[in-house]
């Protein structure tokens, strides 16, 4: 991810937008703001900040990934030397842009969402301006059929370095089965919202919390992956495919 | 954690803190230098325990469990790397395919073992700590795990070792990964040297960069002496790393805060 962020412009933007990102699993809001203000916002590329702020005014803004999370995703992609990625759940395209920035010029991302309305309206212009739109192959539709089709296509098995899943939680385990065929051995699958605001312990019987707990237990027991569950954003679980 | 010669005086701080903790009657597994009721940087102990019980302990190698238990009995155990952090390090090493690594600050060797287990058979770790005794406490677990041969342990302060390495051009850009969990007042000094020794695209991890969350406390808030003493160094470190264009960074609330730096220049 290009680190082009230093300067006064950033400071002003950071100050006004700090309160936009207030869901955290950390022990205090100020601690989270500290991370954002000292390490995230000063290094945020202009286009990513633009898309972050544009997304923040969307009525469903809570669906978006958080800035510290996309910074990590970008770093992971670069560490992996990733060239190809899958994104399940796009919304305005904030994490998609972060991914696109981290891939080389001939990198490719298959981005799947049931609608491209928010993407076309909010993210696409920024992504075009950033010069990385050519890396994105947007597929509209329910993710399961799209993924099934990808698995069936020649040459897709083990062809991807990375996948980010930020979509309907009830289908995570179904996506997992397909992604384990599409992502290469040694590649990474990242699942968002795996701590579900802490409800996994606060209200464990509530349906979505229960589904999340079930997912967490299942992948922790899945010998095909090594896992690491980070309490960043709303809980990000990294799965490295080993078999 | 402490690796400079002058650390001897300051070394009493973690000891004093540990004694404080024991006096509180905290019988269960000791953790980092956290307050009572907050074993981690997370909003609740229950949430942290959930992560440990769900994703960490079921996958923790036997040798690491053993080393963790041996360390828990040690009076200075608040210096140890937490289990979730060990798992994270393990994953990082594998993701980047690291082979030649370094660790500054060993204590009983929990993060060292996590690293050693993740490295390939011919992987190496140059490990430095001013205290060999603590390392020897954990060494039997590391030997039993069959990975002790990957470790080159040097007793003593780290700066002279780093300076020696730098003196030989051959060592420049030769390391894939370095984990620094040591004296906070020397992190920036280590940083300057590590940026020469780590390869372009290589990774440096700095531990304790959220310093128990004290980085956001007002100056007059009550805090333990050694927390207050090193807090300024941590604040300066975080500012410096964020402004350093030679690295891309990411600060994660794993353990006591880990800042990952990927060398790009």
Describe the structure.
The complex is a heterodimer of chains A (243) and B (265). With 243 residues, chain A is of the alpha/beta class. Helix content of chain A is 44%, strand content 18%. Chain A has ten helices and seven strands. Chain A has a seven-stranded mixed β-sheet with strand order 3-2-1-4-5-7-6, with helices on both faces. In chain A, α4 (67-80) packs parallel to α5 and α7 (143-152) packs parallel to α8 (172-182). Chain A is globular and about 40 Å long. Chain A starts with 7 loop residues before the first helix and ends with a strand. A seven-stranded mixed β-sheet of chain B has the order 3-2-1-4-5-7-6, with helices on both faces. In chain B, α8 runs parallel beside α9 (187-197). Helices cover 43% and strands 17% of the residues of chain B. Chain B is of the alpha/beta class and 265 residues long. Chain B is built from ten helices and seven strands. Chain B has helices at 7-10, 12-23, 45-56, 62-72, 83-96, 110-118, 132-144, 158-167, 187-197, 225-243, and strands spanning 100-104, 124-129, 151-155, 175-180, 198-207, 247-252, 258-263. Chain B has a single domain (37-263), classed as Rossmann fold, CATH 3.40.50. Chain B is globular and about 45 Å long. At the A-B interface, α2, α4, α9, α10 and β6 of A face α3, α5, α10, β6 and β7 of B.
């Amino acid at each position: 991810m290009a680190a082009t962020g230093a300067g006064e412009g950033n400071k002003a933007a950071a100050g006004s937008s700090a309160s936009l990102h207030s869901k955290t699993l950390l022990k205090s809001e100020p601690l989270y703001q500290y991370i954002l203000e000292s390490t995230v916002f000063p290094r945020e590329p202009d286009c990513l900040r633009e898309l972050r702020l544009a997304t923040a005014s969307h009525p469903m803004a809570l669906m978006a990934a958080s800035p510290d999370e996309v910074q990590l995703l970008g770093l992971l992609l670069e560490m992996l030397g990733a060239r190809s990625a899958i994104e399940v759940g796009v919304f305005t395209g904030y994490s998609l842009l972060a991914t696109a920035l981290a891939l080389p010029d001939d990198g490719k991302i298959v981005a799947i969402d049931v609608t491209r309305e928010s993407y076309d309206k909010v993210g696409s212009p920024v992504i075009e301006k950033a010069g990385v739109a050519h890396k994105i192959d947007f597929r509209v539709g329910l993710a399961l059929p799209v993924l099934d089709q990808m698995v069936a296509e020649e040459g897709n098995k083990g062809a991807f370095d990375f996948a980010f899943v930020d979509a309907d939680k009830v289908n995570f385990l179904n996506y997992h089965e397909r992604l384990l065929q599409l992502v290469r051995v040694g590649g990474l699958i990242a699942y968002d919202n795996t701590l579900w605001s802490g409800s996994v312990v606060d209200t464990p019987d509530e349906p979505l919390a229960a589904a999340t707990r079930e997912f967490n237990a299942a992948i922790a027991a899945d010998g095909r992956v090594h896992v690491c569950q980070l309490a960043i954003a709303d809980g990000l679980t990294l799965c490295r495919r080993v078999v | 954690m402490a690796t400079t010669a002058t650390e001897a005086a300051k070394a009493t701080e973690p000891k004093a803190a540990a004694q404080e903790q024991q006096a509180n009657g905290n019988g269960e597994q000791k953790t980092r230098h956290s307050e009572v009721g907050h074993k981690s940087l997370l909003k609740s102990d229950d949430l942290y325990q959930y992560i440990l019980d769900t994703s960490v302990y079921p996958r923790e190698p036997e040798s690491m469990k053993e080393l963790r238990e041996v360390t828990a009995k040690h009076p200075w155990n608040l210096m140890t790397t937490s289990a979730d952090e060990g798992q994270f390090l393990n994953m990082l090493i594998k993701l980047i395919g690291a082979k030649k690594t370094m660790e500054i600050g060993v204590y009983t060797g929990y993060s060292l073992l996590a690293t050693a287990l993740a490295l390939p058979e011919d992987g190496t770790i140059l490990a430095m700590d001013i205290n060999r005794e603590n390392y020897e406490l954990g060494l039997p677990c590391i030997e039993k795990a069959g990975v002790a041969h990957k470790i080159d342990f040097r007793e003593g302060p780290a700066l002279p070792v780093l300076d020696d390495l730098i003196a030989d051009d051959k060592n420049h850009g030769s390391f894939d990964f370095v984990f620094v969990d040591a004296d906070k007042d020397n992190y920036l000094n280590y940083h300057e040297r590590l940026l020469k020794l780590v390869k372009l695209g290589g990774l440096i991890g700095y531990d304790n960069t959220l310093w128990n969350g004290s980085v956001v406390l007002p100056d007059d808030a009550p805090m333990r002496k050694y927390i207050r003493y090193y807090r300024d160094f941590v604040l300066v470190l975080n500012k410096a790393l964020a402004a350093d264009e030679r690295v891309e960074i990411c600060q994660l609330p794993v353990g006591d805060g880990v800042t990952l730096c990927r060398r790009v220049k």
